[in-house]
Amino acid sequence: MGDVMQGAMLAIAVVSAGMKYKASRDQAKAVVAGEALKADRNKKLTFARASKQKASFLASGITLEGTPLSVMNSTFDVGKADIEQGIKNANRRSRNIIGAANAQLAMDLAGAVAGAAGGGDTDPSVTPQTNQFQGITKTGTAPSSGSSFFGGTA
């Protein structure tokens, strides 16, 4: 009966790990998709700004040569740089999410296998207690600094 329970617990742990991993992949895809929408919106805004500048220059009787053309080109350059930076940032966030998901998946699966094999506590949030008796040897004697465990001299 114990083997059946261990097998079932292992299966549940593996399915759970897979579901968490899939959720992380979906989150990473959403980050990239959201930035793609934002990039499209920024592209439209950049064209709208440049068009407004062009109309303003032409309405003022300014030819689209020299400085006015430089201003419009600068508008496009800044818009393009903003879009490219946003896409780079989204891709980096996406890679970070996937990297963290890969690491978590490995830990979850290792914990599930260790738990199924009777490896004890597999919860990574449980940290071992620090050794309160550092410096005490296996025989229970204090280090050779001249003081004993209980505060007196050895």
Description:
The chain has 2 helices and no strands. It has one domain. The chain has 154 residues and is an all-alpha fold.
Can you give the helix content as a percent range?
over 70%
**Which structural category do the helix and sheet elements fall into?**
mainly alpha
Domain count: 1
Number of strands: 0
The biggest sheet amounts to:
none
In percent terms, what proportion of residues is strand? under 5%
Q: List the secondary-structure elements in sequence, H or E.
A: HH
How large is the radius of gyration? Answer: 31 Å
The number of helices is: 2
- Tell me the distance between the termini: 55 Å
* Mean of pLDDT: 79
Low-confidence stretches: 125-154
The coarse silhouette is rod-shaped
Please describe the structure with a list of short key phrases separated by commas or semicolons:
154 residues, 70% helix, mainly alpha
Topology record:
Blueprint: H1 2-59, H2 67-116
Helix pairs in contact: 1-2
Short description:
With 154 residues, this protein is mainly α.
